[in-house]
């Protein structure tokens, strides 16, 4: 497994990197036999440290977790425990997903744009109806079943996930609703 361990405005020493590699590998390998890479980022905000970890699995799924504490090792342990809980919760589904799928998840490229937020009031008239694009980049859209998409959204902790539905080839969206349920937008039936 490849690791990328870094710090925002702090130095991450060799001892912490070794600790992260051994503990994270032990946690992830319990639930997934083939993790591909992990990104761990440490940051400090006043007196509190935070740790964000993202692990990519060979099946195309991504798991992410965040932890905070007053000590850097404790922040990592909180993050690792959340990752362990997520992976344990989805262990059966991860293994079933791996057994049913003979090839890795396919991804298609798509352009992604970041639009500038204008600070105008909602009732004021905008100067132009064209939004200003401040960033343009490439994103990956996976081909998944609806169940796999919901699991991927939950593992990543994302509010929504855009995916290509394996069943009909159309673009679909799953999202977390305000009432706690999961919504599914299927564009192929329109």
From TrEMBL:
<dbReference type="Pfam" id="PF16321">
    <property type="entry name" value="Ribosom_S30AE_C"/>
</dbReference>
<protein>
    <recommendedName>
        <fullName>Ribosome hibernation promoting factor</fullName>
    </recommendedName>
</protein>
<keyword id="KW-0963">Cytoplasm</keyword>
<dbReference type="Pfam" id="PF02482">
    <property type="entry name" value="Ribosomal_S30AE"/>
</dbReference>
<dbReference type="InterPro" id="IPR038416">
    <property type="entry name" value="Ribosom_S30AE_C_sf"/>
</dbReference>
<dbReference type="InterPro" id="IPR036567">
    <property type="entry name" value="RHF-like"/>
</dbReference>
<feature type="domain" description="Sigma 54 modulation/S30EA ribosomal protein C-terminal">
    <location>
        <begin position="130"/>
        <end position="183"/>
    </location>
</feature>
<comment type="function">
    <text>Required for dimerization of active 70S ribosomes into 100S ribosomes in stationary phase; 100S ribosomes are translationally inactive and sometimes present during exponential growth.</text>
</comment>
<comment type="subunit">
    <text>Associates exclusively with 100S ribosomes, which are dimers of 70S ribosomes.</text>
</comment>
<dbReference type="InterPro" id="IPR003489">
    <property type="entry name" value="RHF/RaiA"/>
</dbReference>
<keyword id="KW-0810">Translation regulation</keyword>
<dbReference type="InterPro" id="IPR050574">
    <property type="entry name" value="HPF/YfiA_ribosome-assoc"/>
</dbReference>
<dbReference type="InterPro" id="IPR032528">
    <property type="entry name" value="Ribosom_S30AE_C"/>
</dbReference>
<comment type="subunit">
    <text>Interacts with 100S ribosomes.</text>
</comment>
<comment type="similarity">
    <text>Belongs to the HPF/YfiA ribosome-associated protein family. Long HPF subfamily.</text>
</comment>
<dbReference type="InterPro" id="IPR034694">
    <property type="entry name" value="HPF_long/plastid"/>
</dbReference>
């Amino acid at each position: 497994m490849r690791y990328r361990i870094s710090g925002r405005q702090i130095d991450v020493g060799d001892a912490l990197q070794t600790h992260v590699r051994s503990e994270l590998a032990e946690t992830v390998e319990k639930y997934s036999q083939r993790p591909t890479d992990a990104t761990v980022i440490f940051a400090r905000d006043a007196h509190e440290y935070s740790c964000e970890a993202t692990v990519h699995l060979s099946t195309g799924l991504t798991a992410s977790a965040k932890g905070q504490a007053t000590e850097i090792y404790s922040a990592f342990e909180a993050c690792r425990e959340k990752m362990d809980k997520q992976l344990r919760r989805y262990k059966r589904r991860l293994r079933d997903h791996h057994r049913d799928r003979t090839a890795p998840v396919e991804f298609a490229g798509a352009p992604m744009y970041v639009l500038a937020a204008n600070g105008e009031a909602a009732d004021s008239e905008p100067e132009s109806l064209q939004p200003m694009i401040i960033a343009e980049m490439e994103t990956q859209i996976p081909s998944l079943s609806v169940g796999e998409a919901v699991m991927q959204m939950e593992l990543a902790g994302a509010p929504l996930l855009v995916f290509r539905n394996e069943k009909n080839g159309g673009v679909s969206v799953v999202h977390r609703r305000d009432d706690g349920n999961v919504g599914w937008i299927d564009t192929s039936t329109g």
